[in-house]
Description:
The protein has helices at residues 84-93, 98-108, 158-168, 173-186, 226-251, 255-268, 273-285, 289-302, 306-309, 325-330; strands spanning 7-12, 15-20, 36-42, 49-55, 65-68, 72-78, 115-121, 126-130, 139-143, 146-150, 196-202, 214-220. It is of the alpha+beta class. The protein folds into 2 domains: 32-224, 4-Layer Sandwich (Glutamine Phosphoribosylpyrophosphate, subunit 1, domain 1), CATH 3.60.20.10; 239-330, Alpha Horseshoe (Serine Threonine Protein Phosphatase 5, Tetratricopeptide repeat), CATH 1.25.40.10. α3 (158-168) runs antiparallel to α4 and α6 packs antiparallel against α7. The protein is elongated and about 75 Å long.
Amino acid sequence: xxxxxxxLLVLVCGVSVLLPAVARTATPQPRRPVATYSIVARDxxxxxxxxxxxxxxxxxxxxxxxxEAGVGAVATQSFVExxxxxxxxDAMGKGAPAEKALHDLLARDPHPEVRQVAxxxxxxxxxxxxxxxxxxxxxxxxxxxFTTQANLMLSxxxxxxxARSFERSSGPLAERLLAxxxxxxxxxxxxxxxxxxxxxxxxxxxxxxxxxxRLVDLRVEDSAQPLTEIRRLLALARAYExxxxxxxxxxxxxxxxxxxxxxxxxxxxxxxxxxxxxxxVTLVGNSRLEExxxxxxxxxxxxxxxxxxxxxxPGVGQLPQTAGLVEKILSxxxxxxxxxxxx
Length: 343
């Protein structure tokens, strides 16, 4: 069988080098760990696949989590070898179960003893490896359709705490994954503290629009409270999902449902002036000008810069080209509204 040649750009000891993907060569043993805790899982109800991770390491989301719709999910950590991600997904995409895909890559790795890697395939089969040279506390747990794994932890409790949380939780996969991370932190988490976090969730089946298959893709690169921040981002992402859903049903002619979606998004993120403004624009476009005016007024109070945008919208079909319309909308804004910059 022809050996798959794949070269990845990785950072080793602060220097960019090209290393061949997992192959038995005389490469030096890596010295700096991306120590972390993570969960890789498949949702039994929806088939969605996901990875969530937290670490005291900058930009953990750029190396640890990998997922592909209908194929599987991977977390590669400890003394990280990023190629486990694309190579593992490639193997599972060609039909290899998670356990075989992981076993074959470990067999080609010159340093499996320092790796911690977890695979879950599209059927929910899970496999995980914790090398003997991973820094304690290090360990993992394999559950039904998921794995939890951790290294350089404050205690040995982390993998089991994550597993219990995931098994007992309900709701969308992304929220369950983050609940598992919270459980890890509650029993001590990374011995060094917190810095970055990431979550990726993809569809259970590949669609004919692959650009829509990644449902959640959020990263916190550097924060004193990465789990708090990534939860905030997920809540914001959920609100934007409602806005996007509103746009979809509006385009299909269901105005009332669109307005319900817009209102729901506003209630989820009440300080988001963008949601308020476009809600008002939608009302005007459906001959509900009087109803729109207090909504415009609220948007203008939140961010007077919207007043500069209103006159630009009729010319591009975002507002009707009705005489006096722009003036009436702007009349509900602050009396000393923003002025265009001088030329």
